[in-house]
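User: I'm writing a short report section on ligand binding and want a predicted complex to refer to. Could you take this sequence and pyridoxal-5'-phosphate and write out the structure as C-alpha cells? A short remark afterwards would be nice.
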Amino acid sequence: MDRKTIFLCLAHMSEKGLEQKYIKEAFDTNWVVPLGPNVNAFEHDLEQFIGMDKRAVALSAGTAAVHLALIGCDVGPGDEVCVQSFTFCASSHPIKYLGATPVFIDSEKETWNMDPELLEQAILDRKAKTGKFPKAIVPVALYGMPYDCRRIMDISNKYGIPVIEDAAEGFGSRFKGQVLGTFGKYGVLSFNGNKMITTSGGGALICADEEQKNKIMWYATQAREAYPYYQHEEIGYNYRMSNICAGIGRGQMTIVNDHIAHHKHVQARYADLLKDIPGIHLHEAPNADYDANYWLCTITIDPEVRIKGQENAYKETVKSAVGGAAGVIHQVDSPTTDCQPNDNVEALRMYMLERKIEARPVWKPMHKQPVYANCPAYVNGVSEAIFKIGMCLPAGPMVTDEDIDYIVEQIKNAIQ
Ligand SMILES: *Cc1c(COP(=O)(O)O)cnc(C)c1O
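Assistant: Sure. The C-alpha cells for the complex follow:
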C-alpha cells in the first residue's frame, strides 16, 4: 500500500477555510503589512482564549517573544537568567542575544520540567557567587506538559524574580485549571508550522496589562519617539506579526479547542495501545493538576530493549536535519557526539522512518550543548538520562486512529 508519511505534528486548517477568508480580506483591504485588522482581531481572540484579563501581543516568532520578554525584565549584558535546560534552543538563545548568561536548571522526573528545588539552590548559589540574583526565571512546558506552577511562582515571589513562562509548546495546557502563560510576568506562545496552531510562522507574548503590552509593542516596532521624523532613544526590533499571518491565526483560533482535544485523544490511544509493551513507557501527567495539551506524545525506551538494526545505529552521518526540513544545517564528520540517545532509540527512529513514520529524539539538554559549555548549570542527571532514552511520536490533528494503530504495530515489530 502506498502510505503517506506520518509527520510529528503537521499544520491543519479549519474546515471552513477561514484562514483563506481572512487573508483575502487583508488583500482586498490592502492591509498587507505588519499591523492591521487581522493582527488586532487575532490578539483579541488570544485574549478571549487566555482569559484572566491578560493582554497578548502578536509577534513574528516565539523566539522574538522570548527576546522581548527578557527585555521587559530588564535583562542586559552581565545579567544571569535561570532557564530550563531541557528545552528547544529558542528558550535560551535570546538570553545570549542580550549579552546575558543562561544559568541552566535541570528537570524533575515527574514533568520533565524545571526542578523547583534546583531552581532555588541555583538562585542562592548565584547570589553567593556573583552578589546578584538572576534577573528572570524561564520554565518551559516541554511537549505541552505544565511545569510545577505553584512551586515556581512561590520561589519567584520569595526572591522577587519575575517568571517568563515558555509556553510555546504548551498553548492551551493548564495547571489547576489556569492556562499556562498567565502565571508569570510574561507568557510566550509560538505559532510555528508544527505547534498547536500555526500562523505559518509567528508567536505572541502574553502580558499582564495594557501598559506592559504597549511597552512590548514599542520594542517590537523599532522603539520610536513621538516626533515628525524617526527619533530613537533606545534599540528596538522589527518583531510585529504580519496582517497576513494574523489572518491564518484568526482561522486557527476557531479550531484550537478541537486541536487540543485531538492531541489528548491521540495521547489516550497511545496510552491504551502501548501499555502492554515491556520496556516502552509513555510519558504522562503526574496528576490531575497537570492538564497537558500533549503537543507531542513522548515515550522512553529501557536500555535493555533490543531493536532490529541496532548494530547499525550511528554508523553513518545524517544527511539532512532530523525533524526540520527548513534551513541549512552544517554537515558533520562524525555520526556521534559524547552525549546522544542510546543505540536502541536511534535504531527505532531509523526503523520508523523506513516505514514512513517521523519519530524524533527528545530535545538535547542545553547544558550538554557545546555552544553553552561555559554556562553555569545546576544538574541532577534527569534531563540527560531522559535524552538518552526518550523519543517523540507523531501527534496532532492530522494523525488518525489508524495511524496510531500502525505506529504502535511498528514499534512492536521493531522489538527483537
Ligand atoms: C517553538 C519553540 C519556541 C519558539 O519558537 P519559534 O519557532 O520562534 O516560534 C520557544 N520555545 C520552545 C520551547 C519552543 O518549542
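A remark for your report: The pocket of pyridoxal-5'-phosphate is lined by residues 61-63, 66, 87-88, 90-91, 140, 166, 168-169, 190, 192, 203 (CB under 6 Å). The mean pLDDT is 95.
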